[in-house]
Amino acid sequence: MKRSVYTRPAKPLRIAAKARSDFDKVDIPSAPEIVAVDKATECHVTPPEVAARMVRYLGPVGDYLTLEPSAGTGNLSRALLESGHSRCELVQVERHIGVASQLRRFGTVINRCFLDYSAEVRGKVEFPRVLMNPPFSHARQHIAAALDLMGPHGHVEAPTLVALVPDSFEAEGMEVLEHLPHDTFATAKVRTKIIRIRLQHPKAAFTSLDAERCQGLVLNAPEFFADKDFVAWLRSDVPKFTWHRGDAPDEYSDVVVLVDPDLGGEGSDSDMPEHIWTAIVEQCRTHLGASPGQSHYMVRITNLAND
Predict the structure, then answer these.
(1) Which of 44, 244, 304, 305 would bridge with 253, disulfide CB 3.0–4.6 Å?
(2) 151 CB neighbour count, 10 Å cutoff
(3) For the segment 143-164, what is each residue's pLDDT rounded down to a tens digit?
(4) How many other C-beta atoms are found inside a 10 Å radius of the C-beta of residue 259?
């Protein structure tokens, strides 16, 4: 073997290196914050596709103040905003402080137990819409509390609640919109459904009333109120429709009586002094005439001084 094979070549021991600063910037994604939620809170996350359908069941987008009483991780809130709902008209209630802190990007957050919040503000606030996925074991209490906070809030539409509840849940006026697959909440081992409850609008509560017109007279009869028998009847305990209070009749002692329209002498106050009742029936006969089968004539008797 040649000796040169075993000798080190004459090469420099150091080489100058130029510093570089033009490396491409590397974006390092931040790890999502892990929120630990105790199982006792029953925070069962609504799947996004289910949340989107629940929002559609509420009705068209509008300026409806909407309550999410069990906001959790915010999937229902997110679905509301994605549908075009304003974050300024969304109120979220969540008791878990760690979860609640992440909901502020969706709208107003109230870090309270919903049942406590509902008891405190009942009668002070009014929500025309509620969207909720309540704790399954307390669904009845939470939905009842939500219904207590609902009202039209200036809208003509009926207040509407859409909720995700166990299959066993039942409530008056409840409409079942769909039954969810059995594995929707596999870890909870609970079969669920989506329901809707529409409250009757206060203005709609009396639309079915049966109303009809009736005829009447106003008789200014100070002489009646000067009659001792009439005054005795007026001051008696016999039920009557009157504004009279005290002893002596005055200008506020009006009396209203109902006269049978066939003018045969029957009516609501035919037990008053006979001569007074007869005079009232005669006035009806003169000015209104008999109308058998119609509503009673209404006669208001006043005690105003003649000018």
Answers:
(1) 244
(2) 17
(3) 999 999 999 988 888 899 999 9
(4) 27
Q: Where does the chain hold its CATH 3.40.50.150 domain(s)? A: 41-201
Amino acid at 275: H
* Rounded CA separation 76/162 (Å): 11
H/E run at residue 148:
helix 139-148
> What is the distance in angstroms between the CA of the first residue and the CA of the last residue of the chain?
152
Measured over the CA atoms of residue 194, residue 199, residue 204 and residue 205, the dihedral's sign is positive
Of 110, 88, 87, nearest to 99 by C-alpha is: 110
Average pLDDT, the chain: 87
Amino acid at 203: K
| Residue 36 reports pLDDT greater than 60 | no
Q: What is the pLDDT of residue 211?
A: 81
Q: How confident is the model at residue 11 (pLDDT cuts 50, 70, 90)?
A: low
Which of the four CATH numbers 3.40.50.150, 3.10.450.50, 3.40.50.880, 3.30.450.20 does domain 41-201 have?
A: 3.40.50.150
Rounded to whole angstroms, the Cα distance separating 299 from 217 reads 5
Query: What is d(CA 295, CA 155) in angstroms, rounded to the nearest whole number?
Result: 36
Q: How many CB atoms are located within 10 Å of the residue 65 CB?
A: 18
